[in-house]
Design brief:
Shape: globular
Distance between the termini: 50 Å
Mean pLDDT: 87
Radius of gyration: 32 Å
Number of strands: 54
Helix content: 10-25%
Number of helices: 19
Largest sheet: 22 strands, antiparallel, barrel
Strand content: 35-45%
Low-confidence stretches: 1-29, 103-143
Length: 1019
């Protein structure tokens, strides 16, 4: 009689366990000799040579490589094979070795966990046979994902997956992550051009780029030296070398108990290649289907071993040609605007009266300018305003993709001493030149005190006028003269020692330094010189009209309509050059042990670390840029530093055979500006495996973010805005609504500076989910997340100051209270009581929460036609709310007219096939619906007759590879396979008439890549 299936499984399990125990207890004295190459293959060789059974998940090791191990005892050899891979070896009760991902803290400061010493010395044994169960395969076969996952979800993207997905840059890879749901600056946004040219960010969970911690090889790197949006610090990922990345690990949710500050929404860890044998040359060329935006990348890497010395060296060169707005029909003219009212050419030459009615230049005047901007200047009318001279083409004088050229060099060195300790060093250096074009420079009257209203009394015409000029291509001498030019220099080094202490403890002592230095030049118009050129000298006295004094000039209107010679343009043109820099240093000592004490489920793993750190930044602006020297540009300075120290520990406890508990705690103290804020954060994780194929998991963690350096140390800066004067309205016009009050919408100078009294932002984070692996060819994970962030830093709003002033002066709030004393000191009024200026600074005030679900699945078919794989990911945000001020309502960021531009859902799906020398894949991405432009600006109405949403969009990449042999491979990638354009939005009336945070018009692009390896093992 056939045994029942459960009995058959039990018998097979007992037989396999007995075989594993026999192998585990077989004494071995031999040394192993394994070449560098694929880690999975190396582990198979180790198992064969040592006679010890290995259990690991092969697809999890896909793309991971090892430097090899030659002439070492088996246990030391396994340690060497796994070193730097992010994996560790654990021995179970049977004596078999299970290869799993290291504890998170150990990955942050990589220390390879040793294999627990067996009960008896190992001896040579015959090559083990593969024993298969329904859910477990050993020695190189896959085991269920449920047996190797941890308490918190971690997404791993390998270099092979990056290539198969058709990704061409690190920002492209990050954008494909379903958990990366934030609206960040694109290469063609004005904010990116003005505040952080060339930089690109990661924004996990849409909580802001400054709440995602970015690491390289588990180490912090220097921030981009200019702040995001002129406010907060962030990490730039645009210059990271894609070809040198071995894998990317993404941990979403609170991780401050492990990593400290910044890890509120998660951690992105870029692991660079640490294993290489022979010399690998990788060349990729790409361009769009339309034959523009050419780019190429050359990557050369190699490694060698000499005795105890191991080295991996690499270099990557990148060259990207720009893509211009006028290269794409969808955005090459103002006539591409979706509505007739916005299809007006730009007003290159404009003259108005005090009522803003256009003063007609006449057809002949505009005809005389028709040769400018490549013959696009014409005579145009704006309804209800009048006639002007303008160009429909000049709006497209800006880059969609920046011009970039640069090189990165990388080296990873190690030397193994005879006593088992090791010296290691990682070095990185990069230099990139980047150029982008935001828009042609403009001018209107700006007074020495910064007033940009632009109105003046023209004695020549006896009226108040306003003049505006946008300079043309011919006047500038070509577009290149108006580029924002950036030189980025990055450098990083980590060095230290690792080894074993007291026979049972692994240690690592490491010192890391990272710096980011830039030289950024913006094209500018010198205000005073341009005033003199167009208007002549300012005349004595002032002209009063309706209680307002205007400067007096005697300006001939023909001057406005006379094109500038190149010498005249050069006379008013200049570059403002900043030399910002930032750096960070960390000294860390880490201890790890895999068997601190025994529990019913096995040995408890422990890791502890102590850190000292220093961080600094300096904007180093052009001194003239902090004055009213350049037209419409007055910047603030900023420089400062802080020190920190931290103690952290992590404990992983197998309390029962199928129940693991993880605990982590960390204490950080910062010192800056005479203050020493500190926080203790902790986290806990639970892993329960009721079945071999099922993991039920959950985690909770607290997190914090120390105040951004620029929030703290930003120097004084000014801009212009408007505000309602609530106090004068309440006193002088108490019966009028604020909208009808004569003192509403008052123009003011808003001054801003940093706040040295800011407290850290804090958060709580939950995750709960499961991983199910019912068969070796299928697994599924589902995880819920919930993050609650408090004391978020926001700029104090001018309206809040004015409301407080009204309540203080009217007695609603005690005028002698600290709030009123502070409020009244912020407001400057003139002798007649009118508003002049309001001072603001960052404060801890906002609360933001988000929750949702992440789903991922992997499916594999082995057929006669080849191996097919299907890998998918999906994120749906259940809720994302923000309360900017405690007395304001909570805003649903997904609601119509919320003022936020984030998707509720993101999804990705990759279908791949491989057979012998061929492989192919198609990567699809779905971006959920987004608000239309009117909804983003909070003005959408059902009466408009438009949908408040842009529907979900789909994009596909395809990849085809052929391996000529083990050392040569050719790959063709098509990005945006179906040449999809940005979705149409009838309300998006501003250039380029689509949402640049999520889309561009690059179109279908092709990339041909050839990889050749000289010497060493297979690719």
């Amino acid at each position: 009689m056939k045994p029942s299936r459960p009995l058959r499984v039990l018998l097979l399990s007992l037989a396999c366990s007995a075989a594993l125990a026999a192998h585990g207890q077989a004494p071995v004295d031999a040394r192993v000799d394994i070449a560098a190459g694929d880690l999975a293959a190396a582990l198979d060789a180790w198992a064969s040579q040592s006679g010890v059974q290995l259990v690991y998940r092969a697809d999890q090791l896909e793309g991971v490589r090892t430097a090899g191990a030659r002439g070492l005892p088996a246990d030391q050899a396994l340690d060497r094979l796994l070193r730097g891979s992010g994996f560790a070896a654990r021995r179970d009760a049977s004596g078999a070795v299970l290869v799993v991902q290291q504890p998170v803290l150990a990955q942050a400061s990589p220390v390879s966990a040793p294999v627990a010493s067996p009960a008896a010395p190992m001896q040579p044994a015959p090559e083990p046979q593969v024993a298969e169960l329904d859910t477990v395969q050993v020695t190189g076969s896959r085991i269920p994902r449920a047996q190797v996952e941890g308490p918190a979800p971690i997404t791993v993207i390998t270099s092979e997956q990056i290539q198969a997905g058709g990704f061409t840059s690190v920002p492209d890879v990050m954008q494909s992550l379903t958990q990366n749901g934030g609206q960040t600056q694109s290469q063609q946004s004005a904010g990116a051009a003005d505040f952080s040219p060339g930089a690109q960010q990661v924004d996990l969970r849409a909580l802001g780029p400054n709440h995602t911690l970015v690491l390289v090889n588990g180490r912090r790197i220097a921030d981009f030296p200019l702040p995001f949006g002129g406010r907060s610090n962030f990490t730039d990922v645009s210059s990271l070398p894609l070809g040198m990345i071995d894998r990317i690990e993404v941990l979403t949710g609170s991780a401050s108990a492990i990593y400290g500050s910044d890890a509120i929404s998660g951690v992105v860890n870029f692991i660079l290649k640490k294993q290489a044998d022979g010399l690998t040359v990788d060349y990729r060329f790409g361009q769009t289907e339309r034959g523009d935006a050419e780019n190429f990348r050359l990557n050369v890497s190699g490694g060698f071993s000499r005795g105890g010395l191991n080295a991996v060296l690499g270099m990557e060169y990148r060259n990207q040609r720009p893509l211009w707005g006028f290269d794409r029909a969808q955005q090459d003219s103002t006539f591409d605007a979706p509505s007739a009212s916005s299809r007006l050419p730009q007003r290159n030459f404009l003259r108005t009266d005090w009522w803003d009615d256009y003063l007609d230049p006449g057809q002949d005047t505009c005809d005389s300018l028709s040769h400018l901007n490549e013959g696009s200047i014409g005579y145009h009318e704006r309804a209800r305003y009048g006639w002007f001279c303008g160009s429909d083409r000049s709006v497209a004088y800006r880059t969609v993709i920046s011009d970039r050229e640069g090189v990165n060099a990388y080296g990873s060195l190690s030397y193994a001493f005879a006593n088992g300790s090791e010296w290691f060093a990682d070095l990185q250096a990069g230099r990139h030149e980047l150029s982008l074009f935001r828009a042609p420079r403009s001018w209107s009257l700006m007074m020495p005190d910064g007033n940009e209203e632009g109105y003046f009394y023209n004695q020549a015409t006896d009226q108040i006028e306003y003049w505006q000029r946008q300079f043309t291509l011919e006047e500038m001498g070509g577009l290149r003269s108006g580029m924002v030019n950036t030189v980025q220099r990055t450098f990083g080094v980590t060095t230290g020692f690792k080894g074993t202490l007291w026979s049972d403890w692994d240690y690592e002592a490491a010192l890391s330094h990272s710096q980011y230095r830039s030289e950024i030049s913006w094209p500018q118009i010198v205000a005073a010189r341009a005033n003199d050129l167009f208007l002549g000298p300012q005349l004595p006295g002032e002209y009063e009209w309706r209680g307002v004094a205007y400067p007096i000039f005697d300006a001939d209107p023909t001057r406005l309509y006379t094109p500038l010679t190149r010498a005249e343009y050069d006379g008013i043109f200049a570059h403002t050059t900043y030399r910002p820099e930032s750096e960070t240093q960390t000294l860390a000592f880490t201890l790890t042990r895999t068997d601190l004490f025994e529990l019913p489920g096995g040995g408890a793993g422990f890791a502890a670390t102590a850190e000292l750190g220093h961080q600094s930044y300096d904007l180093n602006p052009d001194p003239l840029a902090t004055q009213y020297y350049y037209y419409s540009w007055k910047d603030s300075d900023g420089q400062g530093s802080r020190d920190r120290w931290a103690l952290a520990s992590e404990l992983r406890m197998p309390v029962l055979e199928r129940l693991d508990l993880s605990l982590a705690g960390r204490f950080d103290q910062y010192r800056f500006a005479g203050r020493d804020p500190n926080r203790f954060t902790w986290s806990a994780g639970l892993e329960w495996r009721p079945l071999d194929s099922l993991l039920v998991r959950g985690s909770y963690g607290t997190a914090f973010r120390a105040p951004d350096l620029h929030y703290v140390f930003s120097g004084p800066g000014n801009d212009e805005t408007s505000v309602d004067d609530y106090w004068r309205c309440a006193v002088e016009e108490p019966d009028e609504s604020i909208d009808d009050c004569s003192y509403s919408g008052e123009g003011i100078i808003r001054s801003r500076a940093g706040n040295r009294d800011l407290e850290p932002e804090t958060s709580d984070s939950w995750t709960a989910g499961m991983v199910w692996s019912p068969a070796p060819w299928f697994d599924l994970s589902v995880d819920w997340f919930d993050i609650d962030m408090r004391d978020q830093v926001q700029d104090l709003r001018v309206s809040e100051v004015m409301l407080n002033e009204r309540d203080c002066r009217l007695g609603t709030i005690d005028i002698g209270s600290p709030l009123c004393v502070d409020t009244l000191a912020r407001i400057t009024r003139l002798d007649d009581g009118s508003l002049y200026g309001v001072h603001v600074n960052p404060i801890n005030v906002a609360r933001e929460t988000t929750s949702g679900i992440d789903v991922s699945a992997n499916l594999r078919w082995d057929t006669r036609a080849g191996i097919f794989r299907l890998n998918g990911g999906y994120t749906r945000v259940h809720a994302h709310d923000i309360q900017v001020y405690p007395d304001e309502p909570v805003v649903d960021m997904f609601a119509i007219n919320s003022g936020y531009d984030i998707p509720r859902t993101k999804a990705s799906l990759r279908l791949s096939w491989e057979r012998e020398a061929w492989s192919a894949s198609v990567q699809g991405r779905r971006l959920g619906r987004l608000p239309n432009d009117d909804s983003y600006y909070e003005i959408w109405s059902p009466e408009d007759g438009t949908d408040a949403w842009i529907p979900a969009t789909y994009r596909y990449n395809a990849n085809l590879q052929y391996a000529f042999d083990e050392h040569a491979r050719l790959s063709l990638t098509v990005v945006n396979l179906f040449d999809k354009a940005p979705p149409y939005d009838p309300t998006y009336t501003g250039y380029p008439y689509y949402d640049i945070s999520w889309f561009d018009t690059e179109g279908r692009s092709f990339y041909l890549q050839y990889t050749h390896k000289f010497g060493g093992g297979a690719l």
